[in-house]
Design a protein that fits this description.
By secondary structure, this protein is an alpha/beta fold. Helix content is 37%, strand content 11%. A 5-stranded parallel sheet has the order 3-2-1-4-5, with helices on both faces. The termini are far apart. The model is unreliable at 231-235 (pLDDT under 50).
């Protein structure tokens, strides 16, 4: 049986890797898309490359775009990444690690590639529960982008196909995501979530992303394989 093609956004993190596994479980032939966008945690691209190879994707493309030209985020400018924030602090407002319009930009590139591949399915690992308050991780955003995609593409206008944006993790907690990925055989030791890793890829353990990841593994009752800078990680 011929598998339907799908573009899967792959950052190299826990969520996108689980999303890739779900796309495969649903019998899609995945084309993985990653971005070198000037992020301080560029180590994640090494993780994405390993993950794509391990998953046996049809193709893995890394696109270069320079969001440092705009800055406005601790991930794309010389602003310190917040460390050691409490759960209450993380739940208040939109943090400085938010990259302006990042998912809108990424989905636009994914849409362009999907048109070239003549496929109508795009997977993204956004999550609206255990996340850091990013506005482009919400269900409303995904629904509206899907409407835009079907207005803005040749195939959509001609009525040949309808673009579907798949966000299978949107209503799952981090623990549920980890359990699902584990069921699908995801090797989370290949992934990288830290916003401020060392040159060797060791996670800081204190940024919002590290804390959410550690909390997810703890609540899932699964051993966290992440390499942390142990001296800095609170007990």
């Amino acid at each position: 049986m011929t598998r339907r093609r799908a573009v899967v956004l792959l950052s190299g993190g826990l969520d996108s890797t689980t999303t890739l596994a779900i796309a495969k479980e649903q019998c899609f032939l995945p084309f993985a898309l990653s971005f070198r966008y000037g992020q301080r945690h560029e180590f994640e691209l090494q993780a994405a490359t390993r993950i794509a190879k391990d998953a046996g994707v049809a193709q893995h493309t890394i696109v270069d775009i320079d969001l440092r030209s705009f800055g406005g985020s601790a991930l794309t400018s010389d602003i310190d990444v917040p460390k050691g924030r409490s759960s209450e602090e993380m739940s208040e407002g939109i943090p400085i690690t938010y990259v302006p319009a990042r998912n809108t930009i990424f989905l636009s590139f994914a849409l362009a590639w999907a048109e070239v591949l003549e496929c109508s399915d795009i997977f993204i690992g956004v999550n609206a529960l255990d996340y850091s308050g990013y506005p482009d991780c919400r269900k409303e955003f995904i629904e509206e982008f899907q409407k835009l995609a079907n207005l803005a593409t040749k195939a959509g206008v001609e009525g040949k196909t309808k673009v579907t944006i798949h966000a299978p993790l949107i209503h799952l907690s981090k623990a549920e995501i980890i359990r699902k990925g584990t069921e699908l055989g995801v090797d989370y030791s290949l992934t990288s979530s830290c916003y401020d890793p060392s040159g060797l890829g060791e996670a800081c353990g204190l940024c919002d992303s590290c804390q959410l990841r550690r909390k997810g593994f703890l609540e899932a009752g699964i051993v966290d394989p992440t390499r942390y800078r142990l001296a800095q990680v609170p007990a």
